[in-house]
Amino acid sequence: MGNEALDAALTEYAEVGERYVRALEDKGLVFAEPHAGEARRAELRAELAARGVDVRNAGASLSAGHLSPACVECTGNRGSETFSTTFKCHRDCYFCFNHNQPDYDKFFREGCPWEESLARAADENETLACVGLTGGEPLLDLENALRFLERAGELWPSAHKRLYTSGDLLTAESAARLRDAGLDEIRFSVKDDDEAAQQERVIAAMKLARRHIPSVMVEMPVIPGADEHMRQLFRRFEEVGIDGINLLEFCFPFCNWDEFSRRGFTLKNPPFEVMYDYGYSGGLAVAGSEELVLELMLWALDEGLTFGMHYCSLENKHRSEIRQKNERAARAHPCVEFDEGDFFLKTAKVFGPDVEAARRALEAAGCADFMEDPDERSLAFPPRYLEAARTATREDGEPVRPMTCYLVYETEGSGGYLIDVALREA
Predict the structure, then answer these.
(1) Taking the CA of residue 251 as centre, how many other CA atoms within 13 Å lie in the half-sphere pointing to its CB?
(2) Per-residue pLDDT reduced to its tens digit, 318-338
(3) pLDDT tens by residue, 215-226
């Protein structure tokens, strides 16, 4: 005898992702074949782990060597926030996702209300650990950037402060003033498709920054097909003596698809590990970017390059959001547990003919907390009792097949509620 209730539940979850992909394909986007590249990514990840690379946030983040405090706190519990003083920029990157930001057009014209944003953040978190200033290009308005850093230092005296820049506008004078205003780290946004002269200017700016600012980092998306050029850049970064590089999974920001299409890019499929309406404005991962990141990290280890490397996947961006939503609901129900790895709330479930056999085994193991759903024909219980459920056998001799249900805590008014977003083999 099968398990129609479980099959129906799994089908329902799968169809959510399939409908999402079909809807975007109808708009002209092109996805890779389902699960394309998964085996290669798993192989590379295993090799990196064997080489001592730190696997963080349930695999969404990989780190070797120096890791910025801001990257630690991005998904930590002490808090990290990034602000903008301006959305204006002298560059025009086809993959920029600022257009997805709320009120982009208004703030582009009028400037970003950073004073209000800082005040609101201080009201919400008096001990914020890390503060970032991004853009646009913050150095287009140096005086405002300096005021921002000084105000952030007043609100959070011990906070780590970083600034993102293309580097084009950095001078010795501005670097010294930024340092004196409290800047701890500068991150240079290097673009693979910049002309050689542009990249040389940025390399020169990095060398200049080394003389003035405590920590110099690079942050860049890794674009499929850029293998050799990335290796050349890594060697230049080693010469500069950067502290580390943040390697970002390259993403499509729901605009300029023609630019992605003409370069032959397709989108990762499935687009998310767990389907959910994420708030991060970066968009969808491009197929092949993660594989290249992992290959570059292995190559850099083989070469003995000394700067730190951090792979920040699209999933890692989502981890921060999910932690902020879910950690406050870690004790929402006795059947629900907060996963310290991927930050989802989780409960264990059995379905259909598995329910009664599992219940007997669970009660025998001391489990007294259950949630029963007669419409779904399911029984939920605390994940710590999964092993007991796995030992259960149905009357027809078939083993019980327990699942893990992923949950997100949503707020509404002064209250909140749990929604289930995924169902996986436990």
Answers:
(1) 23
(2) 999 999 999 999 999 999 999
(3) 999 999 999 999
Residue 33 CB neighbours (<10 A): 9
Residue 257 identity: W
**H-only helix segments in 215-369:** 227-240, 257-262, 289-303, 314-326, 354-364
- CA R_g for the chain: 24
- Is-above-0.85 flag for pTM? yes
User: What's the Cα-to-Cα distance from 97 to each of 136, 195, 301, rounded to whole Å?
Assistant: 10, 21, 31
Domain boundaries, the chain: 31-325, 330-425
d(CA 259, CA 283): 15
How does DSSP assign 193-257, residue by residue? Answer: TS-HHHHHHHHHHHHHHHTTSSEEEEEEEE-TT-HHHHHHHHHHHHHHT-SEEEEEEPEE-SS-H
Q: Kindly give the residue spans of alpha helices, DSSP state H, lying in 78-195.
A: 104-110, 114-124, 142-155, 172-180
The Cα 214–Cα 194 span in angstroms is 26
The CATH architecture assigned to 31-325 reads: Alpha-Beta Barrel (3.20)
CA distance 210 to 207: 5
With 0-12 CB in 10 A as exposed, 13-18 as middle and 19+ as buried, what is 272? middle
Please state the φ and ψ torsions of residue 92, each to the nearest 5 degrees: -145, 70
Give CA–CA dist 25/267, Å, rounded.
10
Q: Do 179 and 119 meet the contact criterion of CB atoms below 8 Å apart?
A: no
How far is the C-alpha of 57 from the C-alpha of 206, rounded, in Å?
30
Q: How does residue 182 score in pLDDT terms, banded at 50, 70 and 90? A: very high
- CA pair distance 422, 406, nearest whole angstrom: 5
157 HSE (CA, 13 A, CB side): 0
Write out the H or E segment, with its range, that includes residue 369: none
